[in-house]
Structures are given as C-alpha cells and as structure tokens.
C-alpha cells in the first residue's frame, strides 16, 4: 500500500495486463536481452500506464540480498578497458544486478581499501576488478575483502583473495603471428603497447612464443604507447632503417598510425608489407586496406565474468577457462613478394 492507502501496481499486475509471464516482465524490467523487442515495448508501455515502479529496497529485503555488485576500473579511455567495463555493467543488468562503479587511475592500497569499504557499506555481493595495468592488480592483493572478487587481468593467476579471468590475449598474439608465418613471412616485427599494461605484456609474449615455436628469430621490439602517434613515429623510424616484410601491431589504433606513415612514404599494404592489428575496433574494416586483426569478444568476457562471480557468491563450481579470441583475416596481409 502507498501512503495514500492505494495499492501500488505489482509485477503480477503488469504481467496480467501485458499478457506475458511474471518472468518475462522481470527480465524486461531488469534490462535482460532475451526478450523480443515487441514484447519489451508492450511490457514497458503497460508498466508506464499502470504507474509501476520497482521497489529495489523491498526486493532486497525479501530476498535478503542487495542484488548489487561493485566494479573497480582504472578510468582509462582506451578501447579495451572501456569496452570491458560496458560489457560487465550490461552483464550485471542482464542478471538482475545493479553495478556500483569506482575508478582509480593511480591506486594506492589506501585508495583500494576505501573503495572496498564503500562497497561494504552498500552490501555488495561481489566485486569485479578490471585491471589492465599492474598497479590495480597489485593493490587488490593487499586489501582485506569479505566477498568474492573476480579480477579481470590478462596473464595473471588466481589468488586466495580473488579469482582471475581473462580473454587469452597471448593466444591472440600467437594467432596473429602464426597467420603471418603461414603466409611465408620470416621477418615479423612487433609494435608493442605500453609494458606497464598487462595487455601489452601478454601480446608481446605471444609474439615471442610463436616465433620461437617456428624457430624464427625475434627482431628488436618496437615499443609504442597505445597511441596512433607513437606508432606513426615508429613507422617513420623503420622507413629510414629498412622495413620488415610483416608487422604485428599491439592495437588497431597503433596500426592506423603506422599505416599512415607508410602511406605518406608511398609504401603499399600488403604488397610491400603485411600488417596485423589487435582488438577489431569498429574502424578496422574501414581502413584502406581493411585491417586483418584479432577480435576480442567483450560481451563474452562480461557474461563469463558475471557467471563466475555469481557462482562464487552461491558457492557453486565455476569455470575460469580463458575466453578465446578470434583472428579476422582481411586485406592488409598477403604472402611476401
């Protein structure tokens, strides 16, 4: 009953008026994706007509659960961390959970302790830590925690305080390098991302490992900083020193900057040099030529992350096998001349 004595409409009222099940209404109101668009619109229209408002506090009291998770991110504007954060937040909504997000650009143990304390006050059921860089992964190890924690950190291992999950970017780098080897390239340079990022470290390691497996020498690594400008500068440098026949670049944005340097010098891709990127950013198919790259499935990472976290919350077995990236072959790679 409301303060005026008039009963508030319930989920059952919405379901009855919309001609759907209670579960369907719940899925729509929680932002679930497994609902036909026409059904979603009908449920939302009926809910608006009836004046239905979800009472999260009452729901949590009845279930004796907050239906809330905490998410720690580093606030990076880069494609990977932003896409991962969006995927985790959406997966939480699809599971009926609210996500409280805290960003920590340069975290100290005190910062992390404060963030976990705030989560505790909100009675979160679990915490997801998106850790593309070493500092966040390091501070989580020293923070006292009383709820399950899933650490999204490529190449790291689980700890007594947290469970690690990631997409196997080292495998992705090996797939990229193997593709170039299979085309016949024997001098494959790597334009590496920042090495204070776990992503940069594991992609470099994958390139090295695949070359070693093929008994090929590893040329000097060209270190960039995830930006197109850094890769452009590397491209100008390699043009003066002598280009290899192929390059594996740590990100699509870096590949774009590198390709600009080649274009300005009249170098043709892939006739003169083959290029593979990483991420399958939305602009990768629009480059000229369209970029061969490694696709990360951020939606899968978000869904798997929530499955793992909820499994830990419920005390059920969880599968933490890394997600598998996919090589997307386009027109920026070919056999060497």
Automatic annotation (TrEMBL):
Residues 9-63 form the HTH lacI-type domain. SMART domains: HTH_LACI (SM00354). SUPFAM superfamilies: lambda repressor-like DNA-binding domains (SSF47413), Periplasmic binding protein-like I (SSF53822). It comes from the Bacteria. The keyword DNA-binding applies. One of its GO terms (molecular function) is DNA binding. InterPro entries: HTH_LacI, LacI/GalR-like_sensor, Lambda_DNA-bd_dom_sf, Peripla_BP_I. Gene3D superfamilies: 3.40.50.2300, lambda repressor-like DNA-binding domains. Keywords: DNA-binding, Transcription, Transcription regulation. PROSITE patterns: HTH_LACI_1, HTH_LACI_2. Transmembrane segments: none annotated. This is LacI family DNA-binding transcriptional regulator. It comes from Kribbella alba.
